[in-house]
Design brief:
six-stranded antiparallel sheet, about 35% strand
Length: about 290
């Protein structure tokens, strides 16, 4: 369990695309060191799209780091969350983009936020993550975690997929659709929302199952408790031919699947830990972000 307290040791993870000349990064490091704090710096790397390949090297984060300052946008935060989940270090987001739900502040308010962290004026918030395992018969073809969602979608073309869904081994339903989204509450304001899924408070612990362009009028999202294990099996294509699809973890890491493959989705054993300095409600933040769209 993470105890709150005044922070002394920081790590800055910068998306170089968003802070090209490192002006914001340099200013943050200078400010922290002027206040007697230690601060190491890392940069996000290129995305390979392969599960386990990573975006950030967690081994570069010094032992004893109490806070990772993530400079970028929601995408940078999500990838950082997946890469450093095993370290259990709280993340604090500084938004350098246009719209973000996960970052607490933008670059104009960052020094005020740092004062909060150094003066023990913050709270810790945990967010559940998903773990997805891809099986081909009894062989595990891939294993990855996700903060927002795991999406099973067609690989290419305009084919409709047959997706047979099971909960704890029992048949639930079949979607004939472009794909299916399994989302956390954190991810409910992302791809799931655009597909017609419900908005869920990020403090909740549950799964949201939402079909993508389902070919039926009565296909709606299904809400499931976090203890459940959801299995999605890819059915055959037209004329019983072998179908191909792709499994996406938070929109970047991906694994190909074919007819008969199963994707087993459960709650990940690790949570993402965020730092919050504002005590505004989720609905208030959501309303403000929606107004900005």
């Amino acid at each position: 369990m993470i105890e709150s307290g005044a922070m002394d040791k920081f790590f800055v993870l910068t998306n170089r695309i968003k802070d090209k000349d490192l002006q914001v990064t340099t200013a943050i490091v200078k400010y922290l060191k002027e206040h007697g704090k230690s601060c190491a710096v890392g940069e996000t790397g290129a995305i390979t799209g392969k599960p386990g390949s990573g975006y950030t090297d967690p081994s570069l984060i010094p032992e004893g780091t109490e806070c990772i300052l993530v400079l970028g946008g929601d995408g940078t935060m999500i990838r950082a969350a997946r890469d450093v989940a095993g370290r259990g270090i709280p993340l604090f987001g500084v938004n350098l983009g246009t719209l973000g739900y996960l970052a607490e502040v933008d670059k104009n308010n960052v020094f005020h936020a740092l004062d909060h962290l150094m003066e023990d004026r913050y709270i810790i918030e945990r967010r559940m993550m998903l773990q997805g395992r891809v099986f081909r018969e009894k062989t595990i073809m891939g294993d990855e975690i996700a903060l927002n969602d795991i999406v099973i979608a067609r690989e290419s073309g305009l084919k409709v997929l047959q997706l047979d869904n099971y909960v704890n081994g029992s048949y639930l339903n079949t979607y004939r659709a472009d794909g299916i989204i399994l989302s956390t509450p954190t991810g409910s304001t992302g791809y799931s929302l655009s597909a017609g899924g419900p908005i869920v408070s990020p403090q909740a612990n549950l799964f949201v199952m939402t079909p993508l362009a389902a070919h039926a009028l009565n296909k709606r999202s299904v809400i499931l408790p976090p203890e459940d294990v959801i299995t999605v099996e890819l059915g055959p294509g037209r004329e019983v031919e072998q179908e191909k699809a792709m499994v996406y973890f938070d929109g970047d890491a991906r694994l190909p699947i074919v007819t008969g493959d199963r994707v087993e989705i459960s709650r990940a054993p690790l949570d993402t830990v965020f730092i919050k300095i504002h005590y505004t409600s989720f609905l208030e933040v959501l309303g403000r972000k929606m107004t900005d769209l």
